[in-house]
Design a protein that fits this description.
Oligomer: single chain
Helix content: 40-55%
Number of strands: 8
Largest sheet: 8 strands, parallel, barrel
Distance between the termini: 14 Å
Strand order of the largest sheet: 1-2-3-4-5-6-7-8
CATH class: Alpha Beta
Bound molecules: L-Erythrulose, manganese (II) ion
Radius of gyration: 17 Å
CATH topology: TIM Barrel
Strand content: 5-15%
């Protein structure tokens, strides 16, 4: 498994669960100084990212891109893949497609979290899931064209009513025969929704494509009450070799959260 840490470039997400908020150069420098393998980027849009600048920083600091988030499409522009408005759904897909293409150049997957939206009002759950399946199929194929996959993230009940649990998500992806899409298992959301996070990860098996490495209170692993050992045992059992990425609050401050995460990462991934 490899380590990653979040860098947000979105001013509107200042209070969000991201560790670094002071630009890509600062985020990459701090991540590299602590020995992280990669950064996970939360950009305002694909157009706001400079591929040349990013390539330079990655080379300089020997870092990779773990993933690129699309949530700003929701946070800033209120786009959603399941909006009742067809034009909004189209824009949402276009917004994500550009991020899929940008991330793909770096061999990284894009993440669909908040952009999934929710079913409500005139939109039935069945209709919303049909739109979601369509979007995941189309965007997954696009990611596959770059030799990567698309990440779909079940969220806790306060953020979506589409999928809240990892096992349900895996069963649905399999039933729909959606390929090129992997599940982002966020340990914070799982702490709220799962009866047994380790069992849920085993159920999803090879569909687990990325992990948000967060404690129960969305602080760095070790600063909350999650029992990490059974979760790590499950990840090893399913042969998970992807990132453990710190999508957490910068508490007590960014530097301390980053240090605590890499310490916990090393402790939990040490050879046994
Ligand atoms: C995104 O990765 C996520 O976990 C959501 O809760 C948005 O904050
Ligand atoms: Mn997450």
């Amino acid at each position: 498994m490899r380590s990653a840490i979040t860098v947000s470039l979105v001013p509107e997400a200042k209070a969000g669960p991201f560790v670094f908020h002071n630009g890509l150069a600062d985020g990459c420098a701090q991540a590299a100084a602590l020995g992280y393998d990669a950064v996970e980027i939360f950009p305002p849009s694909a157009a706001a990212l400079d591929a040349t600048l990013l390539t330079g920083l990655l080379t300089q600091h020997r870092l990779r891109v773990a993933a690129v988030g699309t949530g700003a499409g929701w946070v800033v522009r209120k786009l959603s893949l399941t909006s009742p408005d067809a034009a909004v759904r189209r824009e949402a897909r276009a917004f994500i497609a550009e991020i899929v293409d940008f991330a793909g150049r770096f061999g990284a997957p894009a993440i669909i979290g908040s952009m999934q939206g929710r079913w409500e009002g005139a939109v039935t759950r069945e209709q919303a899931l049909a739109w979601l399946a369509e979007a995941l199929t189309e965007l997954g194929a696009r990611a596959s064209g770059h030799g990567t996959t698309l990440l779909y993230e079940p969220l806790n009940r306060y953020e979506t009513n589409l999928f809240n649990r990892v096992g349900d998500t895996a069963a649905w992806l399999r039933a729909q025969k959606i390929t090129h899409v992997r599940i982002l298992a966020d340990l914070f959301h799982m702490n709220i929704e799962e009866a047994d996070s380790a069992a849920a990860l085993r159920e999803a098996g090879d569909l687990v494509g990325h992990v948000h490495f967060a404690d129960s209170n969305r602080r760095a692993i070790g600063l909350g009450q999650t029992h990490v050992a059974p979760i790590m045992a499950a990840l090893r059992a399913i042969g998970y070799a992807g990132y453990l990425s710190a999508e957490i609050f910068p508490l007590p401050d960014a530097a301390a959260a980053a240090k605590q995460t890499i310490t916990a990462f090393r402790q939990h991934t040490a050879a046994r």
